Amino acid sequence: MLPGELDLDETQQWVSKTLREIGGDIYRMKGVLAIAHSEEKFVYQAVHMIFNGTFDSESVWGADEERVSKLVFIGKNLKHDALRQGFGACLYSEERAEQVRKR
Prior knowledge:
Layout: E1 2-3, H1 8-22, E2 26-33, E3 40-47, E4 50-60, E5 68-75, H2 80-88, H3 94-102
Antiparallel strand pairs: 1-5, 2-3, 2-5, 3-4
């Protein structure tokens, strides 16, 4: 579980890279993510190297609900610390958003 909001582009790039590198060891991945600037929850799921993520228009963050992201990996030989670190690096920040806008 990761408190805060995620940068959607960073998250998708990280998931893509992770699945390319260790997708054969990932049986299943699923999660609900809090994406910056979105009231809708983002639902992620993957089987091996095939993944899909969509905003769920029927599931929005409540006014009093803590915006946290949960991502679960089921597989073999997974390096939990590396996955946590990569996931944590996807947190949204105004500074990073400003750097991307300047490119």
